[in-house]
Amino acid sequence: MTVRAKKHLGQHFLTDENIAKKIADSLTGVGYDTVVEIGPGMGVLTKYLLQKKATVTVLEIDTESVAYLQDDFPKEHINLDTSRERFRIIEGDFLKQNIPTLFNQQQIAIIGNFPYNISSQIVFKAIENRAYVPEFSGMFQKEVAKRIAEKEGSKVYGIISVLTQAFYDVEYLFTVPPTVFNPPPKVDSGVIRLIRKKDFSLPVDEQLFFRVVKTAFNQRRKMLRSSLKSFKLSDSLKEDPIFAKRPEQLSVNEFISLTDKIASHGI
């Protein structure tokens, strides 16, 4: 049995074994006992994850892929360790899962060859559940991967850059050409790794921080004194030099400082 790639699910199946192994090897194995793969397809990445010590859970929305993994996935990949149950298949949408409940509040690593159309949403879901996700590694459209890893001063630096880097150290690992997929996408892909910071709590109100970042980038060409006017900034606060900058000029720490200034002056 083979699984057909479905356009409406954004499926592009990786066919290069070396790249699959490199993605699996990008995980450090530190700080968690369960690896969660999103969108395993026919298991090209899964089999390399099963060679590691962690328990592997795959989340797949495609019923055809689920049937393949249940019935036709080579059993030698599953029987590497008979001392415990190491492989679980869950049919469902990762974005709709309650992560703490599904994994009994365990620490998990997330990995996958992510569908382009939901890859950013997967990152935001991981950030939302950062208390349970110490590590995250996977393949994105190259443009998105670069944006997540980008630092301030770049035109592609934006909301997802700041919110991810506030809680994770991000590393762009390598680029993947379209030719190693079936069907090949029209663009290059990029693999990145996120490792949660030792202190992943912010010294400011986190909801306010998220709101400040999103509001600022919604009008990214404007100076902050204009784009953040919905916060009812006082005239004296607007004279602070930081409000003469545009959002892409601010580092994560400067966004934290900005949030603190707004909170201390009242909203």
UniProtKB/TrEMBL annotation:
Species this chain originates from: Asprobacillus argus
Pfam families: RrnaAD
Lineage: Bacteria, Pseudomonadati, Bacteroidota, Flavobacteriia, Flavobacteriales
Gene3D superfamilies cross-referenced by the UniProt entry: Ribosomal RNA adenine dimethylase-like, domain 2, Vaccinia Virus protein VP39
NCBIfam families: ksgA (TIGR00755)
Matching InterPro entries: KsgA/Erm (IPR001737), rRNA_Ade_diMease-like_C (IPR023165), rRNA_Ade_Mease_Trfase_CS (IPR020596), rRNA_Ade_methylase_Trfase_N (IPR020598), rRNA_adenine_dimethylase (IPR011530), SAM-dependent_MTases_sf (IPR029063)
UniProt keyword NAD present: no
Residues reported to bind S-adenosyl-L-methionine: 12, 14, 39, 60, 93, 113
Domain Ribosomal RNA adenine methylase transferase N-terminal: 19-198
Function: Specifically dimethylates two adjacent adenosines (A1518 and A1519) in the loop of a conserved hairpin near the 3'-end of 16S rRNA in the 30S particle. May play a critical role in biogenesis of 30S subunits.
Keyword S-adenosyl-L-methionine in annotation: yes
GO MF annotation list: 16S rRNA (adenine(1518)-N(6)/adenine(1519)-N(6))-dimethyltransferase activity
HAMAP family, per the entry: 16SrRNA_methyltr_A
Protein's name in the database: Ribosomal RNA small subunit methyltransferase A
Primary subcellular site in the record, as a coarse category: cytoplasm
Family: Belongs to the class I-like SAM-binding methyltransferase superfamily. rRNA adenine N(6)-methyltransferase family. RsmA subfamily.
